[in-house]
Fold these 2 entries.
Entry 1:
Amino acid sequence: MKLATAALAALIIAAPAMAENLPPQRIFESPDISGPRARGVKLSPDGKSVTYIKTRADDLRVTDLWVADVAGGEPRMLLDGKKLAPTERDLSEAEKARRERLGVATRGVIDYAWDSLGRVILAPVEGDIWLYDVNSGTARQVTTTPGDEIDAKISPRGGYVSYVRDDNLYITPVTGGTERALTEGGTELKSWATADFIAQEEMQRYTGYWWSPDDQAVALAFVDQTGVDIVDRPEVNATGANVVPQRFPRPGRPNVRVELYVQPLTGSRIKVDLGDNPDIYLARVNWSKDGKTLYVQRQTRDQRRLDLLAVDPATGKGRVILSETSPHWVDLTDDFRPLTGGSFLWTSERSGYVHIYLYAADGTLIRQVTRGDWPVAEIEGVDEARSTVIFSASRDTPIESRVYAVSYAKPGEPRALTAAGGLWGVTVAHKGGAFVGTYTDPKTPPQTALYRSDGTRVRWIEENALKPGHPYWPYVANLREPGFGTIKAADGQDLYWSMRTPPGFDPARTYPVIVSVYGGPSAQMVQKAWASPEDQILLDAGYILFELDNRGSANRSAAFKTVLDRKMGQLEVDDQIAGARYLQSLPYVDKARIGVTGWSYGGYMTLLLLTAPDTPFKAGVAGAPVTDWKLYDTHYTERYMGTPADNPAGYAASEVVSRLPRLKAGSLLIIHGMADDNVTFDHTTRALFALQAAGTPFETMVYPGLRHRGGWTPTNRKHRAMQTLDFFDRKLK
C-alpha cells in the first residue's frame, strides 16, 4: 500500500483562502457548468465538415445539431431542437424504453445520420423524422403520424429513409413519395426489425435491421417474446400508478426467440439459417463491403462461445468461419471490421489481453496485429488506403487512454496519435484516417478537435477551454487534481484508486470520507478524466472522496476480469474493504467516519459493504440496488453467474436480504426510481420488507415516474444530490 509523492502533493496543496465554492444550484442550471461539449460527433462523407449534438445554453434538457467547417470559421447550428419540437411530446412506451437503454435524458435532436454521399442528414425528433438538405440548407418533416417512428436510418446510398412503427419496418424515398411497409403483422409480442430488451440493455445492440450497402436489401430480425415471463412492474407516477406487464427474462428462464431474414426491396423474404438451437443470442449483424456476404455473430446462451457466420444473402445458408471460446465468458464488441476483398479485422482475448487480428475471408488467421501485456479498448476506424487500423488503448496505465495507429499489413510498434495524460474518445473518417478526438483529464473538461491522420490538430470543434468566460471559471480555484495510487489485492494484483480532498485541506486535521463504488465486472471508475461537478457538493462540504477499482474491473487482463466468475459480490467486496482499511491508515482520515455510496451495481455493493462482518463503513446511500441476482436479467447475470440451477451456492452467497440483520441501525438510505424497468423496484421492496420486519431503522427516498438512468431532470438530480449530502452530514459529522 503506497501513496506516491506526487499524489500526496496534489492532496495537501490547499486552495486559495478566497476561493469561491460552487453553489449546488448552479450545477443543475443552464448553461452546462462543464462548458459546451460536442456529442455524437461525425465527419461528413466528403470530409469538409464535422457535425455534432450540443446541449442548449438556455436549457439543459434540449439538444440541437451543429456543424463546423474543416476550413475554419465559427460552428453554427443546423437544426434547432426547440423549434422542431417546441413542446415535449408523450412518447410511446417503445421509444421511452429505447431512450432509457441509450441513456438519453434530453429532447430535441437526440440522434442523426448522414447519407454516404453527404447530401442529406436524417434527424429523428420527438417521434417524427426530419431531413436536412445540405445543398439548400433547409429541413423538411418526413413523417407526421400519431405513432412514433423508432430507430430511423438513412440507407447507405441515400435512397431511402427507414424506420420502425408499431413493430413493422417502413421505408420512404428520400426524394419524397409513398411510404412502403416492408413487413406486416408485427405486434408487441411478435415484432419485426426491433431490438429486444436484452439486446439493448445488455448487448448494446440497439437496432433490429441492417441495410445492404447497395440499398437493395435489408437484413431484419423477427423477435418472438411470447415465451418470456411477464413481470408485473408497478410504475408509480406523480399523478397516479399503473401496472406494466413487462416481458422480463430472468436467470434460468426463457429468453426471446430471434430469427433473422433478408428482405430484398424487390423479391421474397429469405430466412437466415442460424443453426438448430433456437436458444441463442443474435449478437451482431454486418454486411461485407460488396454486399455479397452477410456476417452474423451468434452467441450461445451460456456466453462461452461466439460464432461468426458468413451467410449467402441470396439463400440464407451460412457457415461458421470463426469461433471464440472461453471457460468463463466471451465479451461482445463492435470490433468486427470487414475490408475490401473479403478479409476482416477482429479482436480476441485469447492471448490473455484483447488484441487485434487479421483474417482471410474464409476465417483463416493471417496474422496477429497487436500484442503485449495491455488490452486494446476498441477499434476506432480503418484507413484501407494505407492498410492502417486506428484503435484506442491504455498501454501505459489503465487509468489513461490514447489513440494509436498500426499497419495490419506489416504490423510493428503502434504509433501514438494523441498525447498522454487523460482519456480520449474518437470518431474516425471512413477514408483517409482523419479523426475527431475528444480529450479530458481531471483539470480539463471535454475538448473536441479535428485531427489529421498523423494526430496533428486541424481545428477546434469545441475548445471548451477553462479560462475567463467559461461557466466553471469562477470556481476553478477550488478545482484540485486527485491523487492516484495503488494497493495490493489479496492475490497480489494492483488495485488503482483515486482520492480528492476538500478545499482548504489541512493534513494535520482529520476528515470524513465518502467512497464512491460501482464494483461490477467489466466496469471502471478510476480514470484521469473530468469529474462530475456534482462531486464538488460533497468536497465543498468537507468530505474526502475516494474511489477504488476492485478485481473484475475493465481495462485489465482477462484473468483480472474473470476472477469474479460465478461469485459476484465476494472478491470485489474484499477489495473495497481493503481500500477502506487503507484509508483508515492515513493520518488525515477519521477512521470512524467512512461512508459509501453507489448506483445500480454500486447500490448492491453499498448494501454488501454495510453488512460485511466488522465493516469499516459507518453509513451508506444505496441507489437502485440489486438485492437478488435471480431477479435480474438473463444476459448480464448468466454471463457472470450461470443459472440458479447450475450455481446455487454462488447465488446464495451473492444475495443481500439474508445479510440485512447485520445492518447497523440508521446507517442506510435507499434511493430508487418508481418506474425502474432495469433494476425493478421489487429489488428494493424486498430489502424494505426485511428491514421493517427486523425493526431496523433506515431511510428511503423514492422518485415517482423515474427509471434507472433516463428521464432524470436537473431538478431530480439536484434533489438526489442534496438528499445524499443531508444524509451523510447527519451520519458522518
Entry 2:
Amino acid sequence: MSVVLLIAIALPLAAATWLILRPVGDRHARYAGVAVTGVTLALTIALAAGFDRDDARSTQFETDRVWASSLGLHFHLGVDGISLPLLVLTALLTFLVAVHSLGTIPPGGSARAYVALVLVLECGVLGTFAALDLILFFLFFEVVLIPMYFLIARWGTPGERGPAAVKFILYTLLGSAVMLLGFLLVQAHTGTFDITELAAAGGDGMSRGVQITAFLAIGLGLAVKVPMWPLHTWLPDAHTAAPTGGSVLLAGVLLKMGTYGLIRIAVPVLPEGAEVFAPYLAAFGTIGIVYGSLVCLALVRSPDGDLKRIIAYSSVGHMGFALLGIATLTPQGLNGALFVNIGHGLVTGLLFFLAGAVKERSGTALLARIGGSLYARAPRLGGLLAFGAVAGLGLPGLAGFWGELLAMYGAYKPADGLERPLYLVLLAVAGAGTVLTAAYMLAIVRTVCAGPGLGAETRGTGRPAGLSGAASGRASGATAAGPETALGDQQPPARVEPLPDVGPIDIAAWGPLVVLTVVAGLWPASVLAVTDPAVRALLGGGS
C-alpha cells in the first residue's frame, strides 16, 4: 500500500506536467483535471479503507529511502491517524474544485494552465501531510505557494488580485524562511531531520533554550499559515481576490498545513518549547476568535461588506479554536484541533463555493448590492447558503460543533504545568466568541437569504440598489412576496429578477460537502476513532 501513497502524491504532478507540455484544448484539460483528481481521491479512499484503525497510532504505508546521505536527508513518507483524514479531505476538495471548473473558470488564463496549477497544489499539500522528514516537509510546504500565487494573480478579481497575490507570497515565504531556520537548529543539535525519530526522542539532545528558540521559529512560520492573529492580514485580501476554486483550496486545505505542522512537529519534537509558548498560542487564538467575529459583524452591517471577505475573517475565528485546542497540550484539545481542521474544511469549502456562486450570478459579492432575498430569487441556492451558515456557527449535529467543543473542553483542564486560571478565562472568552459567531452567521442569512425582495437599500437614499428613480418610486414599500404596497396603495408588485439556481454541476461539486458535514456532525467517531490513538501516542499517553 505504500505504492498507493506514492502514486497519489505523484499522479497530480505528472498530470500537471503533461498538461503543460502537451497542447490540450481547454475542454479536454477540464475533463483531465476531473479524471486525475478523481483517481487521486479514489487512491486516498483506498488508503483509508486499508488503514489499520486498531493501530492508528503507528505509521503505515511507509516509504523510507536515503535521499542525500551526506546531509542525512531521507525521502520518508507515511500515514497515521493524524494525517489520514487530512489526506482524504485534500483529495476530496481538489476533486470538487475540478468538478466545479467544468461549469466556470474565471477569465485570466487558459483552463489548461488553471487545471495544471490546481494539480501541482494538490501534490504539494498531499506531500506535506505525508512527509516524515523536516526538509521534505519544507519542500512540499513550499511547492504549494507558487500555484496559489498564480491562481490569485491570474484568475482573481481584477484590481485586487495583484496586491493580494504579492501579499500572500511575501507573508508565506517569510514565514517559511523562519520555519526553515528552526528546522536547521533542531538538526544541528540532534543530528537528524527524521520527524518520527525526533518525536520519539521528545526533545532529547536539545537544551531548554534550544527548544524555546526552535519552537519560536517553527511556530512563527506555521502561525502565518494558520493564520494566527495578528499574522492573519494576508488572508482576507487573498480570499476576496481569489477565484472560487482558489478560495476553497486556500481555506479548506492550505490553512490546515499550519495547525498540522504544530501538531506533527512543534509539539512532540519540542515539548519544553511548547509548554513555554502554549499560553501565548492560546491567548492569540482566543483573540482571533473574538476579533474575527467582531470584524464579521461590522462587515455585515457595512455597505462595503463583502461575502467572501466575511467568510475569510470567519476562518480567523474558527482556526483560533484549533490554536486554543493545540495550546492545551491535552488529547482532548489536540483531537479538537484536528476535528476543527476537518469541520472547517468541509463547511468553509462549501461556503466559498456558495459565495462564488452568488457572486457569479448576481455580479457582486457585496451584501448591500447582491439584490435581495435568495429565497425568492434562487431558493435552492439560498437554502444551501443558510445551511452553510448554520453549520459555520457550530450547530450541534453538524461538523462545526465537535472541534470547538473539544478545544474548549481541553481548555477547561489543560495539561499539567499550564496555568489553569488563565485557560479558564480564555475558555470563557472563546465561549463568548461562539455567540458572536452565531450573530454574524445569522445576520448573513437574514441579509442575503431572507432580505428584502428588492435588495438592500442604499445608504442615505432609502432607494433599493440598482433601481432607477421611477422604478424606485413604484417599488416603494413593496415586498417580493406580497402584491400590496405600504399604506394599502394598490400598485402592481415590483418584479424580483430570478437568478440561475443550483444546477447539476453545482450539485456534484457541493453535494458531498453537505452530506459529509452532516455525517461528521452526527458521527464524530468517524474522525475521532482515527485521530485519538495517534494523538495520545504523540503526547506519550500510549494507545
